Amino acid sequence: MGLYEGLDMDVAVIGAGPAGLSAALYAGRAKLSTVVIEQGAPGGQAATTHWIENYPGFPEGISGPDLMQRMEEQARKFDVEFVYAGVNSISRDSRGYFSVISDESEYTAKTVIVATGTIPRKLGVSGEDKLRGMGVSYCATCDGPFFRGKEVLVVGGGDSAIVEALFLAKFASRVTVVHRRGELRATKALQDDAFTNPRIGFYWHSVVSEILGDSKVEGIMIKDVRTGDAKLVEADGIFVAIGSRPDTKFIETMVDTDERGYILTDDRMRTRTPGLLAAGDVRAKSLRQVVTAVSDGAIAAVEAERYMSEGGRIYPKDTVSP
Ligand code: NAP
């Protein structure tokens, strides 16, 4: 696909996770011309979640890919355009129109909804980058089935780490969670499931100091943070689940963020730049779940419509707070 121009869209949504797809659905249904620009596969992190039990309306639960495919289909029903490319920059001209430039496209849009979510944090240890995809993974749902009958480590103590460990225990012969403290951060229900799973064990007060191997993971050095003692653990894979960080590189100068880089908005999803809205996990908020992401997306789309109907007014910076 070469460079093409789609001038004067009403709404450009960046990111096709739950927040972006919900925003697109609401904008499309309101007859706003809408484009969704996504750099990876549609569905965001939710599409890499094996099973979702807490999204209302699905009492039996639903697989993450299924749920996200349904959301995409629903948005497409309302003539939303999809482009698969990474956005490199966004700027705003004197008319208040945004230019959204990606490798594949350049769109001018009256409003932009940033719904780029988060990207996984890295451990930052030797061997991590070299062996990524060769035993180092950040997504159990994507890579877990490759580790049938093998031994794997999961790093982290939050919900993600325990969800990953429980999923991996369906395939791997042994899953060991490496956590830097002596207690988990994950919710009690997940902890109970992990503690009673015979395939899951724990290295407490431990961190990974090195990942060893040439063309695949062959072993992992872990260090006891209390004593400083290090030991070599044999494992075929290591799943890193130590949290994530917001993906805001391309709009840094147009938004305010909290100390961790999450975009500050008010409760109408407005950032400090008029017409630029943010929705979902990329936003500073208290609960990051599919259900809160879709809510943000709907609010952002309605706000985009309101902003255009009021002629793109400027609102004061001090209206925006987390
Ligand atoms: P998180 O809650 O921030 O947990 C990150 C974990 O990694 C913590 O246990 C932390 O240790 C550990 N950690 C951080 N940096 C580390 C480092 N450099 N080395 C070793 N360990 C490190 O992140 P998350 O688990 O990805 O969850 C993010 C959000 O998504 C949460 O709000 C969570 O509730 C939500 N979520 C929900 C579900 C669900 O409902 N089923 C599933 C997944 C995620 P400390 O505990 O010592 O800080």
Beta percentage is 25-35%
List ligands, each type once: NADP nicotinamide-adenine-dinucleotide phosphate
Q: Which structural class is indicated by helix and strand composition?
A: alpha/beta
Outline the low-pLDDT stretches.
316-322
Straight-line distance between termini: 39 Å
Q: Topology as H/E string?
A: EHEHEEEEEEHEHEHEEEEEEEH
- By DSSP (H or I, 4+ residues per run), the number of helices equals 6
**Based on DSSP secondary structure assignment, what is the total number of beta strands?**
17
> What summary fits the major beta sheet?
7 strands, mixed
The Rg value, from CA coordinates, equals 21 Å
Mean pLDDT: 92
Tell me, briefly, the overall form: elongated
Helix content: 10-25%
What attributes does this structure have?
single chain; about 325 residues; alpha/beta; seven-stranded mixed β-sheet; five-stranded parallel β-sheet; 17 strands; about 20% helix; elongated; disordered C terminus; binds NADP nicotinamide-adenine-dinucleotide phosphate
Describe this structure in words.
By secondary structure, this protein is α/β, with parallel strands linked by helices. Helices cover 21% and strands 27% of the residues. It has helices spanning 18-29, 64-76, 140-143, 159-168, 188-195, 290-309, and strands at 4-14, 34-38, 81-84, 87-92, 98-102, 105-114, 118-120, 136-137, 151-155, 174-178, 200-203, 206-212, 219-224, 230-233, 237-240, 244-246, 276-278. Strands 1, 2, 3, 4, 5, 6 and 17 form a 7-stranded mixed sheet that branches. Strands 8-15-9-10-11 form a 5-stranded parallel sheet, with helices on one face. It has a 3-stranded antiparallel sheet with strand order 12-13-14, with no helix packed on it. The model is unreliable at 316-322 (pLDDT under 50). The structure holds NADP nicotinamide-adenine-dinucleotide phosphate (NAP). Residues 155-161, 163, 180-181, 185, 207, 241-244, 288 line the site of NADP nicotinamide-adenine-dinucleotide phosphate.
